[in-house]
Amino acid sequence: MSKIVLYIAASLDGMIARPDGNLDWLNAIPMSEEDDYGYGDFLANIEAIIMGRTTYEEIMGFGVDWPYPGLATYVFTHQPDFRATSPDTYVVSENFPEFIRQLQYKAQKDIWLVGGGQLVTYFLNENLLDKMILTIVPIILGKGIPLFPDHPLETSWQLAKVEQFDTGLVSLTYDKK
Predict the structure, then answer these.
(1) Which CATH architecture does the domain made up of 4-26+34-168 adopt?
(2) Checking DSSP bridges between strand 4-11 and strand 131-137, what pairing results, if any?
(3) Which residues share a beta bridge with 145?
């Protein structure tokens, strides 16, 4: 059975986006083809992607080509009339736990939980998250969308790996206990 992995960047104060959902602060992170902070290796082990509707709309608003070609992407929403326009993208609007379990059994590789915060908390509260890879960006936003909003249940995690980068970013990998 495949694992569901949260792979996400957060500010030092635990925000994943500005209050309006904007991710412009992530553009300040230097990127090169030689050092992608492990993103390429991570993506090579992913078969499917799950994200919330708001996160999907934010990505679509970037004005770039769909960044996940060839990967089945599932947009979770409580709006049954919502339609996705990107390739290989499907809308899931009901029976979330059952859908997730079936996807885990069918998948040969891991499943990436992209976000947003409400969906992350849902996965935590439903005991559906197996691993977290949190990249901490050395910036304090002061306000925004928290990584774990809406009162997540208490859960314990085991630190599995720490990576430090010259840019000040730190990647923390946690496995569920």
Answers:
(1) 3-Layer(aba) Sandwich (3.40)
(2) parallel
(3) 17
